[in-house]
């Protein structure tokens, strides 16, 4: 066993990050070199209850206890010591949503997650009132929709927060939130790093005649930037996390963060003029801006990094599911012919075939919309493949078209930032399942954005590792998060960068002309099928 690792664990020269993802709770313990020493996890799922997507709060605690217990067992098995303390810890989770509590700390309504799309009226009204995009996922949209619905609980609200904020509160007694996660509750004034007081006043005026007896500022958590201590693990909190009593209280906690913020940290994309693109079930880009946007754009969410810098987020509901379905269909064909092909080989073979296709995909068109896509004005989706008699119908062009389609809605959102707003990018990091086949989707993304795109193993253990890094940053004394990540975490990281190829850029632009023109076909399918 590694003596250095043992010494780091027993002396508390470590940091712990735990993230509540949509399907998995993950815990990562890192050492002084910022690399993982042990991990643990727990699978969970949301459920639809009385018209709202939710998670039981009992599952929050049974899940995090299971993830922590698995991590502690890994420490015991791999390093031969008990985990009794860590140097710092922090919790992150899915952003947005609505957890509302009364003055006694009792939950007023079941947790409403980011998945809910029942706040359209509230989001629309607040967007126009603030002249700042308020997506349906945001916590303030959930609160105001409850106001509009006349829900009885609203007058009893004493505190509302996100999932990460709730966990942090229960473990420390502190109603605080990291600025990145807070920016998905209510707009942040980046000049102060706090909730926008002008918009708070507008909201209070909006609901003033309803007799609630509260003002919004009293309901919101305090906001802290990365590197600031946000409380300590209490004795009750230690027992809540580790019912065996082995973990000791007193551990300092970093501000709780959202999964978008930890993703930026884990991909070293917190500096201005950097971006990261995550492509899986959904696909989104986070672009760290140099200043405010000139205009209101409902296609762009405005959030912040964990350090408080403004971020433009282009979020698309539809990622790689339809593409994977086509790959699975080809796998069925192979099986019907008696061929045995493993999944990785199947994906790689089909993806690589796209490299030999025509630059624009041979004149064909596809939409990957299984769900609605707000950025292109669709409340529902119908996956579709279309070709004309003149299209060059080959496997290479078919795969290229579907790979392009997986980036189409993202390009629409990014055009707002890069073309309409003139945002400048120095680098873009790509991660997620779409980019596992080397040099294919990475090159297509570079063409779609006309920007160099890098891939590598930066993301480590994902968002939980990003949260552990934020806890380690707290231990280091805080300061400049961008510089600390560059010097202490990613200085020796290996990345591979692809420059945009002019012919591919032109080809993707041609595809996008078809993509935009063909949205009328997609609209007709939604309306008629």
Automatic annotation (TrEMBL):
Domain of life from the UniProt record: Bacteria
Coiled coil, from the record: none
InterPro entries associated with the record: ATPase_NBD, FGGY_C, FGGY_Carb_Kinase, FGGY_N
GO molecular function: kinase activity
Swiss-Prot/TrEMBL keywords: Carbohydrate metabolism, Kinase, Transferase, Xylose metabolism
Chain ranges of the Carbohydrate kinase FGGY C-terminal domain: 275-472
Keyword Acyltransferase: no
Residue span, Carbohydrate kinase FGGY N-terminal domain: 15-262
The keyword Transferase is assigned to this record: yes
Signal peptide region: none
UniProt-listed SUPFAM superfamilies: Actin-like ATPase domain
Similarity comment: family membership: Belongs to the FGGY kinase family.
UniProt-recorded name of the protein: FGGY-family carbohydrate kinase
């Amino acid at each position: 066993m590694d003596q250095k690792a043992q010494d780091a664990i027993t002396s508390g020269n470590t940091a712990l990050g735990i993230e509540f993802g949509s399907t998995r709770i993950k815990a990562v313990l890192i050492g002084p070199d910022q690399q993982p020493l042990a991990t643990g996890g727990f699978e969970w799922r949301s459920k639809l209850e009385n018209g709202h997507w939710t998670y039981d709060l009992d599952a929050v605690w049974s899940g995090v206890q299971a993830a922590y217990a698995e991590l502690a067992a890994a420490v015991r098995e791999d390093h031969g010591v008990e985990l009794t303390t860590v140097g710092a810890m922090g919790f992150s989770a899915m952003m947005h949503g609505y957890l509302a509590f009364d003055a006694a700390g009792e939950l007023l309504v079941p947790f409403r997650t980011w998945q809910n799309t029942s706040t359209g009226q509230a989001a629309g009204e607040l967007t126009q009132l603030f002249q700042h995009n308020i997506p349906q996922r945001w916590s303030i949209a959930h609160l105001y929709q409850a106001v509009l619905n006349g829900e009885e609980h609203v007058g009893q609200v004493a505190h509302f927060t996100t999932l990460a904020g709730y966990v942090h509160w229960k473990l420390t007694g502190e109603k605080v939130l990291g600025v990145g996660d807070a920016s998905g509750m209510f707009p942040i004034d980046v000049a102060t790093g706090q909730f926008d007081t002008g918009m708070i006043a507008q909201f209070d005026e909006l609901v003033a005649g309803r007799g609630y007896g509260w003002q919004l500022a009293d309901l919101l958590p305090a906001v802290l930037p990365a590197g600031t201590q946000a409380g300590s693990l209490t004795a009750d909190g230690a027992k809540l996390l580790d019912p065996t009593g082995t973990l000791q209280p007193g551990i300092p906690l970093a501000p709780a963060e959202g999964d978008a913020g930890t993703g930026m940290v884990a991909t070293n994309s917190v500096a201005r003029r950097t971006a990261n693109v995550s492509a899986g079930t959904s696909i989104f880009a986070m672009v760290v801006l140099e200043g405010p946007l000139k205009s209101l754009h409902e296609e762009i969410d405005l959030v912040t990094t964990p350090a408080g810098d403004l971020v433009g987020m282009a979020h698309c509901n539809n990622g790689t599911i339809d593409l994977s379905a086509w790959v699975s269909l080809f796998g069925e064909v192979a099986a019907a012919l008696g061929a045995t092909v493993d999944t990785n080989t199947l994906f790689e073979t089909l993806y690589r075939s796209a490299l030999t296709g025509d630059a624009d995909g041979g004149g064909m068109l596809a939409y990957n919309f299984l769900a609605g896509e707000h950025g292109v004005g669709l409340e529902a989706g119908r996956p579709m493949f279309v070709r004309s008699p003149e299209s060059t119908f080959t496997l290479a062009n078919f795969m290229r078209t579907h790979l392009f389609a997986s980036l189409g809605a993202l390009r629409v959102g990014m055009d707002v930032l890069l073309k309409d707003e003139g945002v400048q990018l120095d680098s873009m990091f790509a991660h997620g399942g779409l980019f596992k086949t080397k040099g294919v989707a990475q090159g297509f993304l570079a063409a779609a954005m006309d920007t160099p795109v890098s891939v590598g193993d930066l993301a480590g253990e994902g968002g939980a590792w990003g949260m552990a890094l934020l806890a380690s940053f707290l231990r280091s004394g805080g300061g400049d998060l961008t510089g600390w990540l560059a010097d202490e975490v990613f200085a020796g990281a290996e990345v591979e960068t692809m420059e945009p190829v002019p012919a591919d850029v032109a080809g993707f632009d041609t595809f996008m002309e078809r993509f935009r023109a063909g949205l009328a076909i997609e609209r007709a399918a939604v309306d008629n099928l």
